[in-house]
Every structure is written in C-alpha cells, then in structure tokens.
Amino acid sequence: MQEVLIVGGGKGGTAILKILHEASVMKVIAVVDLNENASGIVLANELGIPVGTDWRQFLNDTVDIVIEVTGEQKVFEDIRDMRGKNTVIIPGSVAFLISKLLEDKEDLIHQLTSESFKRDLIFNSTDDGMVGIDDQGNVMLYNKSAERMIGKDQEDVIGMHISDVIPESKLTTTMETRRTETNQEVVLDNGLKIISNRIPMITDNDEIIGAFSVFKDITEVVNLAEEITNLKEIQTMLEAIIHSSDDAISVVDEEGKGILINPAYTRITGLTQEEVIGKPATADISEGESIHLKVLQTRRAIRGTRMRVGPKRKEVIVNVAPIIVNNKLKGSVGVIHDMSEIQSLTQELDRARRIIRTLEAKYMFEDIIGDSEEMMIAVEQAKLGAKTPATVLLRGESGTGKELFAHAIHNASDRKFNKFLRVNCAALSENLLESELFGYEEGAFSGAKRGGKRGLFEEANNGSIFLDEIGELSANTQAKLLRVLQESEIVRVGGTKSIQINVRVIAATNVNLEKGIADGSFREDLYYRLNRMPIQIPPLRHRKSDIPLISETLITKINQDYGRNVEGVTEEAMNKLMTYHWPGNVRELENVLGRAIIFMNYNEVKIAGKHLPQLENTSKSHLKEVATDPSGSIKDLATQVEQYERNIIQKVLEQNNGNKTAAAKALNVSVRNLYYKIEKYNIEIISMK
Questions:
Q1: The model scores a pTM over 0.90
Q2: d(CA 522, CA 514)
Q3: Is residue 30 within 8 Å of residue 50, measured between CB atoms?
Q4: Phi then psi for 433, rounded to 5 degrees?
Q5: Model confidence over 253-289: pLDDT tens digits?
Q6: Measuring CA to CA, which residue among 222, 165, 175, 173 is closest to residue 195?
Q7: Under a CB-based contact definition with an 8 Å cutoff, are residues 286 and 309 in contact?
Q8: Distance CA 361, CA 464 (A)
C-alpha cells in the first residue's frame, strides 16, 4: 500500500483525507498544517493519523506520494527539491480539483435523484470533462468540456453505452468495485492525454445507481513535464562536465555570493563548499582583489589575472566571465589555473623540446648554466666562434661541459639545420676510428661491406662534427685529419679518390697538447690548425659561485629522471658543496647530488648535509703520506713524486674496481698513458667486484 503525506489541512486537504480514508487504497502517514486547528488536522486526529506543523519531519524515502494543498508555490518548490527520487508530488491544483469533485459528486447525486435540470449548469460551467453513467453503463451525463475533449456531441452520446463513446473508460469497473479511483492517466482515441477521477454513485441505502468520471486535459502538462525533464538532464550533464574538469571552477550570483564550485576548486584552494557557497566572492582570496566583483560591476570578462587563494596562499591565474541571460546579469563564472601545475608543465615542455629536437645537437647556449665571470667569458667566445666557420678547440678538464659547448656552437651557427655528429676519439681503436671517420672502399679490409661505407665526415657534410678527446688520435689519423682541415677533402680507407666535403670541425681535449707536441705524440701543424679559436672552459673549482645555480638545475633534471620532488639544498649542505674542490667538475657534482637524492626519504624535500657523501680535499693528506719512507728518512724529490703518483693511481683504480678507462677519466689522463704508468710502477690491479 502506498504511503501518502498531505501538506495542508484546509478545505482541500480535508476533502482529500476523506477520499483516501474512504477508498482505503492508500495509507495517509501524516497531515501537516501550520494551523493546529485546521479542519484537516482535527479530522486526522479523529482518525488517529499523525499530525504536525512541519512537513520536513515526515518526508523521507519511504513516502510514495506527497499531496501539496497549501496553494503556496514556495512550499511546492521546497517539497520538490527535498523529495526522494521515487516520491511523486501532486500539486495543489489537482488536490483542489479533487476537493471540488467531491462536492460535485454530492451535488450530482442530489440532482440525479431529484432529476433537476440545474445539473446542466453545474456540469457545463467547469473546464473539466464530466461523464456520468447509470447502473446499466449508459451515458446520462455529458458536459461541454467532455464534448471538446472526446470530440463527440452531447445529443449523439446521451443514451449510448459508455464503451461505445469512450472505449478506454473503466466506469463500469468502478461500479463493480464501488471504489473511487483518482489520478488515472488515459489516452483517448484522438491522442489526447487526460487524468481521470472515477467515483461510484451510491445512495444512502447502499444502492449503486451509476458512476461518473471527471477528467482534465494534461497534454500541455505532460509536454511541460518533458521539457522540465530535458532541462534536468541538461543540468545534470553540465554539472557532470563542471565536476570532471581539472581546472577549478567557481560561480557566483549577481550579488557576488558563491553558488557553485567543483572538486578541483577544493583541491587547488583548500576551501570546502561550506566555506564558499553562500559566502561573498572575497572568501577565497588571500592576496589580491576579487575578480568576480569587478566582472559584476563592469559586465566584462577579465582574463589572466594572478592572485593567491585559500589558506595555503596558492598562486593561481584567474579567468572570469559574466553570465548574462536575456540581457540581464545573473552572475559570473571563474576558471582558476594552478600556477604550480603550469610551471611544472612548462618545465616538462622545455625538457621535452630538448629531447625531441630533430637536430642531433640537443643543447643551446641557454642550457649552459653559470653567471661567473670565467664562464661568461667562455660563453661569449663560443658565441663568437659559432658565427664563424673557423675550427674551434674546446679545452678544459673532464666534466666541465665541453660537449655541451659543442652542441651550443652548432645550434647557434648557420649549420644548425644540418647534421651534428659526435665522435669520441679515445673510445675506438686506431683502425676502427680511421674507417669510421673517413669511410672505406669495398675490399679495403676483411669484413668490409659490399660497396664500401661512407665515413662520418661525409655523413656530416654541410654540418658539424665534434671530435672529443682529440689528443688521443694516432699519428696516421692526425695526418688525415690535417688534410681534411687544409684541403676540405677526404680519402676513404683503401681508396685513392678524393672526396670534397664541407664540414665544420669542433674539437675538444682535456690533455696538454703543447706537452704532446714537445714529446712528439701530437703534430705541431695539426695543433696550429685546431688551435685557431681555442676556448678554455673553466673547472668548477674556479667558478664556485655557480654551484648553487648548477645544483638547482641538476636537481630538477634528477627529479624528472628519478620521479622525485626534491626542492633544493639546505644551507649546511651548500656550505659543504662550496668548500669542496671538485676534481670531477660538474659531472662529479651531478653524481653527488644524484646519490644524495637516491638515499633520501620520500617525505624529505631538501638535501641536507647528512645526505651528502663524505667530501674531502685529499690531495694534502696524500702529500703527507709520501713525504717520508717507513724509516722516517726523507727521500729525494723525484722518488717522492713517483711514490705519490703510484699511490694515487693505485687508489683511483681501486675506486673504479680496476676499470682502466674510468680511472683514466678520473685522473684526466689518456688510457694509453695510464697503461704506461701501470707498467712503469708495476701496479697490481685488484677488482673490488
């Protein structure tokens, strides 16, 4: 049995209560009216039905139907907004209609029994259709409104059986059941939708003498309901779109009070709905002026305004536009972008641009970090060299960024849209390096490809080639390179034909070429060709003022590589970094910072001194170790220097687990020179693995 809540205890509410109580098809759970002496309240008390003055205490999800008969639109709207999804609300107009029907029923019975012609006046004075039948089911009452709705004239209908006039009618069933049926929806043959109330006519002697139906055209009401449903669907869709946005959205009314925010707004600002809805537009601002209020005053959109919002003073960018409906200002809508997210995305974009550049050269002069005088001089020289076709020789210790300069020089030159190839001259054997640089002809040596192979100089034609560790070239390769620089032509291995090329050579070395010239390991004429525009890149120990800026850049890079969110370095840790002499230069600094970040906890955001490995300037201590022999007597200078050199090589080899290439780089000497020293001092290599 359906549960019904009657709101309104006046005449209409009383009439409906009587009908429902008599019909016994629905259960009235309560009658509510502000007037405790209303007739409906009194009747409900007599019938043992709960009463009250506030309908909210009775409205819950178990209520099936709410009949609102107060006649106040505000009450109807409040009930509509608070009802459950399965609760039907019947407006007061329908309830008053039923009340009127009850009165009409009593008058109709009286008139039918008295056969008064006044019934015509009653029936024809209402816009509701009325049809009455006798106990045989023949039509004996049929008003003008019924004519209009059904489409049949009165004189043609009177006396006909109801099933011939309205096939859909169930008045005969009403007589059989003797029960009143209310709010029954019926679709007529002509497509008209009506809501019908069927009432049996019973005398005081409990004799059934017929039945009558009162019905109302609800076609327009149904269409309006469908429109309302569509509006509800659109509203639901819009709310879903707003709530799914990653950008914070806030809406205020024409008075500047908050009426809507989405979850992203709470996430970015830290403010909940209770702190914003119904509050002034300034409630979320911690620094700046309310853009909502400005837009409401000017009726013009404002975009790109920076401000801080919420208790955490989040920096955001705000775009606000007015809401104008039918040329009337209804409020404004604001979209808030989190600046931290924008900055993070910008950094990601910059990094992505460096990675996906179509050119082989990945770095620009903007990627070279440092504002010390030494570095600024080197950068200015490199920029000058980029604008000329001259060969550039980059000189500096290992890890100072020679390759970074080479990339930047190429990208700043007029060759930037052509190839940029890199060759580490120390990483390849003499024969392999020669064939890679200059190419080879078919059959030049065993295993040569059919048809030969183009060398890197040919591949880099019209572009640039970076020759790292140029001091490691063999004498034969040096001679061929000299020909390239002098004549701008090459000869493939095993070939005799010269091939013209147009290549810009950028060379780099960390060894003393002048010493190589002196001991005969490096050609003097090649030196003068390469040294046309030398650029000395300072070691990190000579530009320690750049360490904070370099550390910040390296931490950003390491965060992206390791998926961390480290914000910087504490003052204590920075002091340790600034006092170290950095023999490995920037490469060693990156290694130290990366190692520190790896061992940090995920909730730590600053690199502290405890995270850094032990950084010691060891050179002085080693001098003390070799100053005397075990007996305490002082040895000659040459012996002490050799002993010190042997100890240093031995220790570096142990640190690199016997890896000679890594040890040579750490010592800033060539691999060939390291082998010579190992053999000279009879150093035993012990792998630590």
A1: no
A2: 8
A3: yes
A4: -65, -40
A5: 988 898 888 888 888 888 888 888 888 888 888 777 8
A6: 222
A7: yes
A8: 10
